Fold this sequence. Notes:
The complex is a heterotrimer of chains A (324), B (330) and C (503).
Chain A: H1 2-32, H2 39-64, H3 72-90, H4 92-116, H5 121-140, E1 145-146, H6 157-160, E2 162-163, E3 166-167, H7 168-186, H8 188-198, H9 200-205, H10 210-236, E4 238-239, H11 247-257, H12 269-288, H13 295-316
Antiparallel strand pairs in A: 1-4, 2-3
Helix pairs in contact in A: 1-12, 1-13, 2-7, 2-10, 2-11, 2-12, 3-4, 3-5, 3-10, 4-5, 4-10, 7-8, 8-10, 11-12, 12-13
Chain B: H1 3-30, H2 40-65, H3 73-87, H4 91-94, H5 100-126, H6 130-149, E1 154-155, H7 159-166, E2 168-169, E3 172-173, H8 174-192, H9 194-204, H10 206-211, H11 216-242, E4 244-245, H12 253-263, H13 275-294, H14 301-320
Antiparallel strand pairs in B: 1-4, 2-3
Helix pairs in contact in B: 1-13, 2-8, 2-11, 2-12, 2-13, 3-5, 3-6, 3-11, 5-6, 5-11, 7-11, 8-9, 8-11, 12-13, 13-14
Chain C: E1 8-17, E2 20-30, E3 35-39, H1 46-53, E4 61-66, E5 69-71, H2 76-81, E6 84-87, H3 99-103, H4 118-132, H5 147-158, E7 165-169, H6 177-192, E8 196-200, H7 204-210, E9 213-218, E10 221-227, H8 233-241, E11 259-268, E12 272-280, E13 284-289, H9 295-302, E14 310-315, E15 318-319, H10 325-330, E16 333-336, H11 340-344, H12 351-356, E17 364-365, E18 368-369, H13 371-385, H14 401-413, E19 419-423, H15 431-446, E20 450-455, H16 458-464, E21 467-472, E22 475-481, H17 487-494
Parallel strand pairs in C: 3-8, 3-9, 6-7, 7-8, 13-20, 13-21, 16-19, 19-20
Antiparallel strand pairs in C: 1-2, 1-4, 4-5, 9-10, 11-12, 11-14, 14-15, 17-18, 21-22
Amino acid sequence: MAELSKQSIGSFLARQGILVAFVIFMVGFALANQRFIAIDNISGVIRSSAILGVMALGVTFVVIGGNLDLSVGSMMSFSTIVVLDLHDKLGPALAIPAMFGMTLALGAFIGFLVGYLKLNSLIVTLGMLSAIHGLTLTYSGGQNMDIADKAGTWFSVFGQGRVMGIPVPILIFALLAVVLSLVLSRTPFGRKVYAVGGNGQAATFSGIPRARVVFMTYLISAFCVATAGLLQASRSMGSQNTVGQGMELEVLAAVILGGASLLGGSGTIFKTVIGVLILGFIQNGLLLVGLEFYFQYVVTWVIIILAVWLDIAAKRGRIWSPIA
Amino acid sequence: MNRETLLKQGGIWAFIVVELIFFSVAGEYLSVSDKAFMDFDNMLLLLKQSAPIGIIALGMTIIMINGNIDLSVGATFALAAIVLLDSMTWPFMAAMGDWAIPLAWVFALLTGVILGAINGLIVWKTGVDAFIVTLGSMLGYRGLVFMYNGEQPTSHLNWTLVDFAEAQFLGLHTATWFLLGTAVILWLLMTKTVHGRNAYAIGNNREAAVNAGIRVGPHFLINFMIIGFLAALSAVVFYSESGSVNPNDGMLYELWAITAVVLGGTKLTGGYGSIVSTLGGVIAIQLLRKGLGHIGADTETVNLVIGLILIAVLFLDRQLNRKGKEELKI
Amino acid sequence: MTDQTPALRLEGIVKTFPGVRALDGVSFTVMPGEVHALMGENGAGKSTLMKVLGGIYDPDEGQIFIEEQPTVMTSPMQAKAKGVVFIHQELSLADELSVAENIFLGELPLKSLGRVDWAKLYSQTDAILKTLNVGFNAKTRVGDLSIANQQMVEIARALTVDPRAVIFDEPTASLTDAEKVVLFDVIADLQAKGVGIIYISHRMEEIFKITDRISVLRDGQYRGTLNTSETNEDEVTQLMIGRSLDLSRNASHHELGDIALEVRGLSCGDLFRDVNFNVRRGEVLGFYGLVGAGRTEIAETIFGLRDPSAGQILLNGQEVRISSPIDAISHGISLVPEDRKGQGLVLGMNCRDNMTLPQVDDLTAGPFVSDGAEIAIFDQYRDKLDIRTPGWRQTVGNLSGGNQQKIVIGKWLSMRPEVLIVDEPTRGIDVGSKSEIHNLIRDLAAQGYAVIVISSEMPEVLHVSDRIVAMFSGRVMREFTSEEVTEDSLIQAISGITGDKVA
């Protein structure tokens, strides 16, 4: 009996360990500093995590489908720069759909290369990271983009507005999380994403159009990136070309922290949201106890390694690797 | 050697020749300066400028041949740079005069080796994939960089050091010598030593290597220590001259290095690749950078072109390696 | 010969796995300079015995003797050090490295500073290659060699030690006739040097050509040893099949329907050529042949996973074009693949989701997958196929092989196919589940499905099939009805013995 319960605790920790760690972490910081659990603090953390979070939602699809997307950071800066530029040229009502269209086209291109041409996603998206960055710089001529008349536009509503007292970025993040969670967990398409990532061969043998499914995951990722770009542009109303740089790896860190396997086939939107929030609250908690923001990097490092290590240790039934 | 591998190994050098011809010819019509592209000094400068990424890319080659990847090199680079510059200001070091320089180098290189060893040990002992381990330490090591000196740049200009870095020996700059020296040593390591040959075997067919009694873990560890050392060496070479390091320095270096390695034809899955071809990849990228500038294209276009070339190379490689029509369509 | 010390002797080896006695007191002796065939049906215990010999499994009882010295095997490397070397079916070479480096993999000769002593490496390699009389040299990249030559590299590896016994496991599976001659010469050389050879093969022709003695395993038990010169194919076959089959012949008693699937002149590159057959509703058509004979590739071509280079596929008399599994499924063709874990199932998914995967698009309520519709299908086929699982949430990877296979079969039955192709239906499945799956296949035929069963196990093919197609090396050698087929004629047909080949 004791043996059994020990085992089930072990497997529970392996499955929900990240949630447990999150709770312990929150309680610890709350005890250390009352301000940590104040509503406005929590809302502030979620709001500042929203951009990373929205991108992580899309990357979750790509990763569950068995691929990587390292291009989301530079794609986000592309979207931001484009929408800011077009805002003054076309007005916000046209600028936003135009930007979404252009970003989706980039996503479709990547999806074509990885899905239909079956090229290695790590290299393709690495190449696209560089290419899109170049595209952005070429587009902007290396200049920072600013909205000329910041007061005279409703564009700021996405990044700075509130609806019923809730910041709009949080609403958008939440809405997208709910919708994409339903798509992933409840629709036939979501099922296919898991199948393709879990065992691409078996998916093909079951008559699932693998190429099309992979293509769609990149399209979803691009949609999320465009949304993140919109939030970023609207929050800052102006931007440098370097916004988003390096975010691809932070996004991936959040997704992995949430428990998605880089091999594909596992992970959920809910867990990714937890991963994003952990990153956000670690940063916030460390700030509140008086540590600089960069301490979160070190803490994140330790947490990522521990999370993945525990996960595979539970699967192989031993702590240390069998590598001689 | 059959024709296919010849094409693969010669490919990057053929590409360099094409670049040289293209930029020389196009430069005649488009160049903003009246200097020829293939100007000797220009080429020497090119080699010098490719050294920092180049040295890291050479290390990345052996990591990838071994079947791993290292995303933390940029952060290692920055931390080693800080140790290099900061250690020279320590009181006991300052008292040593110019003798502090070699000691500072040792500290910096040791930092790189230790950070590499941490990565290697984690990969070995936990069995977590190197991609994830080094993704984590990329953040973690960057955190250490910031912890060292906050968001302030760390500066220390030592003129002896600057003179050394700017010196030319037999026409080549110090940095170029380091790049070439690293290439020669790693080439010897990978082609002549048991460690190098075993690293190939492990990346090529890990199961076969394990069955043959090769201990995989120590080889992983050694290669991660080497790339840590080289990331630090790259910092030593670069910051001896510049004398100031920002905490964000070295960001995205891992991606540039991987790009150079892949352009050089090293397989992502391990077991195949060469140091010499990576050197070609590094030079090709720097040539592109300079060449586009030479013909008056925005420097911004470089990223676009390199990215697309990387994808094109991948596509060509796939077309060349395609099997017959009867293969299983999965 | 009798007063010699045996090169290798296994004494009373017992190995049990949960529920199965894989080896039941097997004894086996190889004399120096002898080629000793080890024969038996798939699942008879040959590979388990070899794994015990290679130290991969610890025997529960019994003892291994090398030149009469009791020896405990702990790993293939240690076995090699003791002079027992395996030449495997799947080659384990690093194809980017040179021949020499592969032969001395893990044992490269060292000079100072950790350098490889190339001179020594090459001279040692050349010495070994010379004895093998091969047409490549020490510096050749292994990836540039033919399969036959790669096998020579594996054999050369064995010669880096002074071997007492060398085990060949189906060494001719992918060799041409000319390459076989070279291999047999090498084996004869080893033999002349006094090395004991264990030769595992299904191919009678070879066995009778090169071996001195033949030992037969059946159901994990040793069934006897025959002198090759004093026996014949029939006697060996008898020993392998032996017992009156508890798997009785089972031709259909019901009326057969129309031809459901017909294949005319189907070819796919070098994989198979000019294949013709048909299968009727209510009929089970068996495909029997050795691994690599092209059976699986035919199934994959019909299922749209390979592009045929010639030929037609007709469904209900109409020619159809099938260029993907999606096409095949829409035409009512289903394939239960050979590699259950690699191709049949998403192991990390639960039972229900695996079962409904091909039709998940049709099981919707609004935009969402309907839980109810899915569970209904799962429940129906769980009951129908008697799948034992705690519930549909169970991860498929945690089920037994038999239950996993039933999930795959259920997946396709729930699509109500016209033609069901089952490749190796009982591979890696325990005995009890085996007969359940056999009965299931018979039932499906009785219900009017056209079923094609591909198998490497003769009793299985004989048991379930109404007609049997025998294949050898990409060609249909002969078609048998269940009345006319005999074990002997079947074994001869798939061994390439072209006595009465039907063109």
